[in-house]
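Hi Q.,

Before the meeting this afternoon, I wanted you to have the adenosine monophosphate prediction in hand. No need to reply - just skim if you have a minute. The sequence and ligand are here:
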Amino acid sequence: MSTRVGTDIAEAARLLSAGGVVAMPTETVYGLAALARDADAVRRVYSIKGRPLDHPLIVHVANEEAAREWAGSWSPTADALAKRFWPGPLTLIVNRADFVPDFVTGGRPTVALRVPSHPLAIELLRRVDDGLAAPSANRFGRVSPTTAEHVRNDLGDDVDYVLDGGACDVGLESTIVDCSVDPPQILRPGGVAREDIEAVVRTLAPMSGPSRAPGMLDSHYAPNCRVVLRENDDESEPRSSGATRALDASVDPSSFARDMYAHLRNADSDGIETLVITLPAPHGIGLAIRDRLRKAAAQR
Ligand code: AMP
Ligand code: MG
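Predicted structure with the ligand bound:
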């Protein structure tokens, strides 16, 4: 029987509560969801993705109150960021509550928590009434999915159901802020801009180089084609070979972010060998786009 794709939220909730694995839409990318307390279900998520077991997962919850249950302590910083940006594309790293299993945190004393804003994700979390571990619904290291069809193409019949919530609004992953250290630090740029975080948390530890959250590799988000990056003011000819396509992320970064992973996928399905992309300026959503594209372009 082939995996069903649809909008039956009651069925998605039923499958999850019974220990199933369901792809769910969020405003960032599609997640591969399972009950975060269910060892067998979470093990299936790791095995479907081919993700190393020590890479921790983000626990998605319906609201701040539920997040506080999963947290061992709730710092003023976590509180301020949650109140300002949840529901939304922000993940908070906080000390974990005693019950939070090692298979979710990779054995760390901290847990990653997020309240997504996609209406179907929120409704699903309410019905399941528990935390859902949900990494991106793609094979490890490859391009993240931003439509139900992307999930279907990647994971085939390995998941029990794909809940179709349309194309993701933000189009790239959440910003991860580590609130378990002082000062807090951005571990991965994402859907919430650094400038907006700084308006709430005055002192942030500097983030240097590529995103460095545990388990994040130098090559990630990678299509099959070669990705060549250039700055907006770069006048040299890009080094390209074979069928080439050029994209410009600098003109309208938000709309580029929304379509970015689809662009990477389309390049492959169209037989493109070299994708040349002009980078956006490194602020706002541009920081996250640059981070993902650098990893997509990295040597593998
Ligand atoms: P995603 O790949 O979008 O599911 O995001 C998962 C990422 O969140 C992991 O690769 C880690 O980098 C980060 N993460 C999850 N849990 C923790 C944690 N307890 N401490 C630090 N980073 C974490
Ligand atoms: Mg991912």
